[in-house]
Amino acid sequence: MIRIKEGLSKEDKKMLNKVFLRSFTIFASWNQVRASGLSFEYAMLPVINRYYKTKEERTEAMKRSVDYFNINSALSTFLLGITASMEKENSENDDFDTYSINAVKASLMGPLSGIGDSFFGERLE
Predict the structure, then answer these.
(1) pTM of the model
(2) How many structural domains compose the chain?
(3) Tens of pLDDT along 95-124?
(4) What does the alpha-carbon distance between residue 35 and residue 14 come to, in Å, rounded to a whole number?
(5) Bridge-partner residues for 31, per DSSP?
(6) How far, in Å, CA of 54 to CA of 15, rounded?
(7) 94 to 74, 80, 83, 85, 91: CA distances (angstroms)
(8) Which ranges does the record mark as transmembrane (predicted)?
(9) To 5 degrees, how large is the angle CA 57–CA 106–CA 59?
(10) What is the pLDDT of residues 51-82, one digit of tens each?
(11) Does residue 71 sit within a domain?
C-alpha cells in the first residue's frame, strides 16, 4: 500500500488539508469563460503561498492556475494534487518547464471528467 503523506512535513500536511477543504468550492465561481478556473486558483493558493517567496513568482503561479478548468468535482482533488506537486517542483528547480503545468492540467481534464461523470454523473434515461 502506498502512503502518500509519508515523509511530508507537518506544514505540508496542513497545506494539503487546506487544498482539500477548498476543493469543495470547485464550482462556486463557475463562469462561461474560465469555467471553474477561479475556484481552482482559490484551492491552489495555499500551495502558491507556501512554495513561492516573491510577489512576482506568486503572480505568475496565480496566472497559471486561473486558466480554464472544468472537471467532475469528485476527481478534482486528483488534479489539484498533481498540479500542487508540479508547482512545488517548479519552485525548487530553475529548469522546470512551467508550460507543462497547464499542459498536464488541460490534458487530464477531459479523461478524468469522463471517468468521474460515468461514476458520479447524472443518468439521463
Answers:
(1) 0.85
(2) 1
(3) 999 999 999 999 999 899 888 888 887 554
(4) 27
(5) 35
(6) 18
(7) 33, 22, 17, 15, 7
(8) none
(9) 15
(10) 999 999 999 999 999 988 888 888 899 999 99
(11) yes
